[in-house]
Prior knowledge:
Layout: E1 7-10, H1 16-27, E2 31-36, H2 39-48, E3 53-56, H3 62-74, E4 80-83, H4 101-128, E5 134-138, H5 151-173, E6 179-184, H6 203-216, E7 220-222, H7 225-235, H8 237-244, H9 247-254
Parallel strand pairs: 1-2, 1-4, 2-3, 4-5, 5-6, 6-7
Amino acid sequence: MKLNGKTILITGGASGIGLDAARQFLDLGAKVIVTGRNQQKLNAAKKMYPQLTAIKSDVANANDAALLYNQIKELGGIDILYNNAAVLVPPSNLGIAHHKHAEGAAYEMEVNYLGVIRLNNLFMDMLQSRKEAAIINTTSILSLAPSLIEATYSSSKTALAFYTVSLREHLKIIGSDVKVFELIPPLVATEMTEERNDKKISPEEMVKGLIDGLRKEQETIRVGDAKLFNLINRFFPKNAFGLLNPKKSHQLLMN
Length: 255
C-alpha cells in the first residue's frame, strides 16, 4: 500500500506512538490529521510539525466523534483511519476485586473498543469512496493472552481483535476495497507504560514496523516481540501466560 499522497487520521496522535506515526507519515509524503483530548499536547504537536492538522476530539464521546467527522469532511476527507487512541486504568485502581473496577472497565471499553467502532461506522462510506483506503486497528499482545493486573484492558483489546477480523471479512464479502489492518504491538515506551520495567521498544521502531507491514499489505502486523510471543502462545500457551504474569504481578493483585 502506498502512503505518499494519502490523508491519514490518527486518533490519540498528540503524543507517544501517534505523534511518531504522524512524523513518519509526513516524511513519506502523507497529509496527517491528529486528534486528542489534551489541547496543550495538540498545540505542542502542531508547533513541532506545522504541516499537521490538529483537532481536539475525545473518541469516547459520541458528539465529539460526529463533530470530528463533519470537520474532516470539510477538509476533503481521509484515505486511512488509524485507530491509535487507547487508555489503561492503572492496575492499582482496577484490581478485579476493587469497588471501582466496573467504572474503570467501562471507560477502557468505551475508548479502546466502542470508540473504534463508532469512528469506523462514521467514516466507512467516506473510506469506501476513496480509490485506496484502509482502517488500522491497534490491538495488543494482551489480546493473545491476558494480563492479570490489566484484566479489562486485555479484554478490551481482545474484543477489538475479534471485531477487526469480523469487519475485514465482512468488507470482503460485500466487495469493499477498504483494507482492514490489525496492528499488534509489544510493550512500547510511552506515558502509559512508564512505570513498567519490562523490555520496551521505542515508538519510532514500532511505527517503522507498522509502515513496513502496510507496504507489504500484511493484514495482521506484528511488531518486535509480538512476533515471537504469537508463536510461543500458539504452541506453549501456559508459557506465554507466564511471561505476561510473573510472580511480581501476583503480589500487586494482593496489595
